[in-house]
Amino acid sequence: MLPNIRMLFLGGNRFTGAIPHSISNASKLEWLDFSLNFFTGSIPVNLGNLKNLKKLNFGVNNLGTRKADDLSFLNSLVNCTYLEVVAFGNNSLSGMLPTSVANLSTHLYSLYMGANRISGSIPTEYAVTGEVSTSGDVYSFGIVLLEMFTGRRPIDDMFTERLSLHNFAKAAIPDQVIKIVEPTILEEALQVQDGSSNHQRLKPNWKSQIHEILVSILRVGVLSSAESPSDRIQIKEVIKELQDIRKIILAMGL
Predict the structure, then answer these.
(1) Which stretches make up the Serine-threonine/tyrosine-protein kinase catalytic domain (predicted)?
(2) Are the C-beta atoms of residues 209 and 252 closer than 8 Å to each other?
(3) Which among 172, 245, 169, 241 has a CA at the least distance from the CA of 210?
(4) DSSP element (H, E) containing 235
């Protein structure tokens, strides 16, 4: 793995097979997102080697062996002292939550694990309907997506009962998107553009292209995180939107 990579976002593709254990070699990773794919098997138990990890999202895959130790990967995450978000909802993970969950990072404010085979408490949304639904996990994905691209958390002081992260992002689309996007993402885009072999082709309108991509990504986050489950887009729509965004990025030559 690339040792200096900080953000690895591979959500909304059609990747299959097991998540490689070698991912732990990317020691500087802060954001890791493999959501909305078709990964199977166990979640690597050496993720604790990613000491700088802040956000981890494996939601909406086919992960799990239906054995009691499916959640053993959580034990290693105790070593990730900067961890803020852990999402692995809508998989086939089984077993009891390990007691190590209580020792996860003191920075942790979001733990998404609905629609699995885990013994323990049931998310409120599922309890109300009496049925397992993926809408709660679409919501989780949307919030994590907004967190990643704005660099803000739902519990930040700026958010109140009247202003949520969802509403904050929604109000910025489309004209104010650049102002709310996490600065490091824009820096990465600048570095890629400046070092691209397609520099001359991208130069005339690359800023508008980047803006279009960011608007599309934040729109997916907003549509996924609507307050009412009935107002949220379906997982298959999320996947399609992300695949369309990926095509735009590839067409740009980035």
Answers:
(1) 123-163
(2) yes
(3) 245
(4) helix 235-252
Closest to 35 (Cα-Cα) out of 19, 52, 53: 19
Residue 236 confidence class, pLDDT cut points 50, 70, 90: confident
- Give the C-alpha distances (Å, rounded to integers) separating 148 from 8, 24, 54, 171, 220: 11, 20, 10, 17, 13
Residues 76, 60: Cα–Cα separation, whole Å = 22
**Contact indicator for 53, 83 with CB cutoff of 8 Å:** yes
CA distance 44 to 241: 28
pTM of the model: 0.65
- What lies within 8 Å, CB to CB, of 103 at 6+ separation is 78
pLDDT digits (tens, 9 = 90+) for 102-136: 888 988 888 888 778 886 543 344 444 444 455 66
DSSP letters spanning 49-90:
G-TT--EEE--SSEEB-SSTTTTTHHHHGGG-TT--EEE--S
Q: Residue 19, Cβ neighbours under 10 Å: how many?
A: 21
